[in-house]
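Lecture 7 notes: from sequence to structure.
We start with the chain below.
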Amino acid sequence: QVQLVESGGGLVQPGGSLTLSCAASGPTWSRNAMGWFRQAPTKDREFVAAITWNGKETYYADSVKGRFTISRDNAKNSLFLQMNSLKPEDTAVYYCAADPNFYPALVATMGGYDYWGQGTQVTVSA
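Predicted structure tokens for the same chain:
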């Protein structure tokens, strides 16, 4: 079992930055690939970014590539999402997720992840 708790969301102006954190617990969490997804009102949940258990490989949605950076600190049981150059269309609830069985072909799909946090709201508005 892996437990996940997101934090760091809030209100930010367009062009601003925000860093989300995900605190993880559980005996095997550090061996999990991790991902960030987001869900805007009236829209489906979508993939944002993912990282392998050792941090050596990262994956990004085209919409955030070059603006967002995913990272992890296994020693501190933490996952991060640094978000720069934020746009109003980045407004959503952001979720972290854990994948104990990493398949690159499934990295951007919700079904590839077994554990989910409850989400943190990010609002980008002037």
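Points to note: The first strand starts at residue 3 and ends at 7. The chain has no helices and eleven strands.
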